[in-house]
Amino acid sequence: MFQILIAVLVVILLLLVGISWFQHRAISQIKELQAVGDHWKKEDLASQLAQGKKMQLIGDAKETFNRLEKKYQEELIPQLKQVETRGKELQAAVKTSQLLTINSAINDYRTLVGRTSNEAQKIQKTLQDLQQQEQRHHQAIDHLRRQYRHFHQQLDEKNFEYGDTIKKLSQQLNDLEQRFAKFVDLTNKGDLEAAQEILSELQNDNQKFDHLLKTVPKLYKPLVTEFPDQLDELQKGYATLKKDHFNFTEQKLDVKIEQLQEKLKQTVAQLNDLEIDIVVQSNKDLADEIDNLYGVMQKEIDTQPEAKHLMDVMGQFIPHAQHQNEELIAELRRLNLSYTFNNNEIEAARQLNEQIKTINKQFQEDQKAFADQTVIYSQVVDRQKANQKELTAVEEKQEKINDEVAKLQTDEQRARKMLQKYSVDLRTIKRQVEQLNLPGVSQDYVDYFMGVSNEVKKLNAELHEYKINMDDVTKQLIMVESDLESLQVKTNDLRDSAELTERLLQYANRFSDNEEIEKAAEKSRKLFSKYEYTKSLEAIGTALEKVEPGSFKRIEDSYYSENN
């Protein structure tokens, strides 16, 4: 029984603690929501609205303010009172049996407070926007007034930088100030929306006008201080140069100068009408065209000394090249009687002569232009420089052709000496073979010897032609040289094989009792009698090596040592 009582007491105690915690939590939530309502009471929107009334607004701004005031009186004040009343009711309800359903009521209260706070925020924000807009307009009035004073000061103190553009600029400034006056009037009356429309346009147009004040002097300066003087200088310079008989690559420069002077007047008029984009392009065109005219005239002044110098140089260079070509053609004709030309040397010399004629024709035309005072110095420099380069190349070709044909006689003499040498070499080889006292030589050797002999005869015939073809002679020399070397090698092989065979046969006599040696010696002698000396040497040499290894090598080394 006692234990049941204790359990009941514990349950009651826990229930009391839970109710206390739930009451405390509910009161805390209610107070937080009441604090939001108290905040908007402290904000004193009524005073803020009363302060806003002093702005004396009209138009859209006045309507906006009236809507705010009406919303405050008819909606927000009742809602704030409801928030206050409902908060007190809920605090009282927490201490009654309504505690069990208080959560739903608190949530409804929270919705009411949130809606009321949002409405209050909107009213306050809109009111602040109106006040800030009015403040910005008053600040803009001060800023624009200072800006217009600066514009007037700029135009008054530096009117020399603007010329007749002052008229248009003053008109634009006057129009800006009139619109500014209207903006001030609307701001003072409180028509903020209408004033804002004018302000946006004014700020944009003021920025453009400020850009104009900075741009016009930059465009105006060259039009009145640079271009007129430059065109006047060009006009006088052109007249002086024409008097000194200068001519130019561009025709009618005086007309072009007059056209630029007219364009200058048009550009000044366009600037006075503030056609800025057109003037920017016109100024660039004027500067470029004036620079071009200076360049055209200066080019002739600069190239005059060089043109005269080149004419003097070419006046000597051309006759020299002509004389050299005449001598070259004469020498070619003389040599052509004795030699065949294989590289069209005479035709090449004639083509060089035509080149010289063309160059001389241009030189004569330039000389006439000097005499007629119609010369354009820069063109003479370009033309005669090219001709000088071409004439230098002509002389190099003349020298090359001359060097090539000059070698013909020297090459002929060298070829004749070589022919004489080859004939001697051939006779020497023949004597070498005869001195061997051989029974004979192979038909292959005879054919090769006769072939080389015929080649020497052919070389001799070519050198005794009415017109010698040195290309053919050179080819024949190369062939004879190579074949003579091969003939000498064959002759040496013939001699060495024959003499070595005889030595080995003599050495083989020591082995007369050796049947194999005797057979080899017999075979070697038969081959020897048939002029097959290499095979004869091989037959006896192989047999001796079998009987006495190293003997063949020893006899061979001894033979070559003696001959060397």
Fold and architecture overview:
- The protein is an all-alpha fold and 564 residues long.
- 87% of the residues lie in helices and 0% in strands.
- The longest helix has 61 residues, at 276-336.
- Residues 14-19 have low confidence and may be disordered.
What descriptors fit this protein?
564 residues, mainly alpha, 15 helices, 87% helix, elongated
Distance between the termini: 153 Å
Order of helices and strands: HHHHHHHHHHHHHHH
Mean of residue pLDDT?
Answer: 78
Tell how many strands the DSSP assignment holds.
0
Give the radius of gyration. 63 Å
Low-confidence stretches are 14-19
Looking at the structure, what is the overall shape? elongated
Q: How many DSSP helices?
A: 15
Structural class designation: mainly alpha
What's the gist of this structure?
With 564 residues, the protein is mostly helical. The chain is 87% helix and 0% strand.
Q: SSE layout and pairings?
A:
Layout: H1 2-43, H2 45-53, H3 59-93, H4 102-157, H5 165-189, H6 192-243, H7 253-272, H8 276-336, H9 345-372, H10 377-435, H11 443-463, H12 470-508, H13 515-529, H14 533-547, H15 551-563
Helix pairs in contact: 1-3, 1-4, 2-3, 2-4, 3-4, 4-5, 4-6, 5-6, 6-7, 6-8, 7-8, 8-9, 8-10, 9-10, 10-11, 10-12, 11-12, 12-13, 12-14, 13-14
